[in-house]
Design goal:
Blueprint: E1 3-22, E2 28-48, E3 53-57, H1 67-79, E4 84-90, H2 101-116, H3 123-133, H4 137-142, E5 146-149, E6 154-157, E7 164-169, H5 176-180, E8 190-195, H6 206-214, E9 218-223, H7 226-235, H8 246-252, H9 254-267, E10 271-272, E11 279-282, H10 285-290, H11 297-302, E12 315-320
Parallel strand pairs: 3-4, 8-9
Antiparallel strand pairs: 1-2, 2-4, 2-5, 5-6, 7-11, 7-12, 10-11
Length: 333
């Protein structure tokens, strides 16, 4: 195999995000549902025999040592592989959005080079590398929507009903560290215990359980069965609508407030993903039609462009959730 072309790296949205504690090393403990969406970067890989690694940006220039290149270097180092690669990136996902674009690129790079270099490493060997690169990378390696815990490394795969989501990214970006160090950062008063997951306890340490429970006064049960998730999404109530990072982001970036209001006006709901600055809304086509946006129900169902004008320098589109990651199965379990 000399090359692999058209490798997708899809984004994610946090349907909710709770801060439930803090580790001694300063990392915050989170609980969230990560949903894969069809907005994606595209990567191309060509094998080199000289061991060199080079990235070629087919759009705006990326930082010299981005997560994609770091992922390639890490896999090469850990495996002792003598091959290198030319990596071409078609960057479509906005940076600094809270959508995991860089982490997704890194995960797709690990999966693609694992094939291109014929390492045939199982997922169990790639996941620790992903965590070294960033807390979101294991999710993109996992291959499905997930209820996520810890700093992002504890994954419970879940199924979601098909969702249509309007995503809007303001011109400004927000540094994640700034949000987590904000005095406005709230911690959830409850920790979710996953109903219907008998292996849940074994995937966590007692230390993690104590750290989370020490920060929380209540324990809630979340039913993450297919039926439970469907009820949660359709009701649009409770944990579905909260992101504990949103208040400090709004205080730090007025454009987040503006974006949230634009989606609220158009779709009747809005919330931020990750640490921002992108925001999103669940799209109900008939509700949009009733808001007299000048578009029909049929066109709303089919379109990917937002049904209103956005400020210059912003980006956005209507997305669909994915049934699974397009690269699921590229590494055996």
């Amino acid at each position: 195999m000399l090359a692999i072309y058209d490798v997708p790296a899809p984004a994610k949205l946090n349907l909710f995000l709770h801060v439930v504690g803090k580790r001694p090393d300063g990392y915050h403990l989170l609980q969230s549902i990560f949903a894969l969406i069809d907005w994606a970067d595209t990567l191309h890989f060509e094998r080199r025999s000289d061991g060199a690694l080079a990235r070629h940006d087919q759009g705006d220039a990326l930082p010299p040592d981005d997560l994609c290149l770091r992922a390639a270097k890490l896999l090469q180092s850990e495996s002792g592989c003598n091959f290198g690669a030319d990596i071409h990136i078609e960057k479509r996902l906005p940076a600094g959005a809270g959508m995991g674009g860089g982490s997704s690129d890194a995960a797709s790079t690990l999966l693609a080079l694992n094939r291109l270099w014929q390492l045939n490493w199982p997922l169990s060997k790639l996941l620790p590398l992903g965590l070294k690169l960033g807390a979101d990378v294991p999710f993109f390696l996992g291959g499905s929507h997930a209820f996520v815990e810890g700093i992002g490394e504890i994954l419970h795969p879940i199924e979601l009903p098909e969702l249509r989501l309007a995503v809007l990214k303001p011109r400004e970006s927000i540094a994640t560290q700034k949000i987590f160090s904000s005095p406005l950062l709230a911690r959830s008063k409850s920790v979710a215990i996953v109903a219907g997951f008998p292996a849940h306890k074994s995937k966590r340490s007692d230390k993690q359980d104590k750290a989370q429970n020490a920060e929380s006064s209540e324990v809630d049960a979340i039913d993450l069965s297919t039926e439970g998730i469907a009820r949660l999404v359709e009701s649009d109530e409770g944990i579905w609508g909260r992101n504990d990072l949103q208040k400090p982001a709004e205080a730090s970036c007025p454009e987040v407030v503006q974006a949230l209001q634009m989606l609220e006006n158009a779709f009747g709901n809005s919330r931020m993903t990750g640490s921002g600055s992108a925001v999103f809304a669940r799209v109900n086509a008939r509700e949009c039609e009733g808001k007299n946006l000048g578009v029909s129900h049929q066109s709303i169902v089919a379109q990917t462009t937002l049904p209103f004008e956005i400020p210059q320098g912003w980006t956005g589109r209507i997305c669909r959730s994915l049934n699974r990651h397009p690269l699921q199965g590229w590494a055996t379990n």
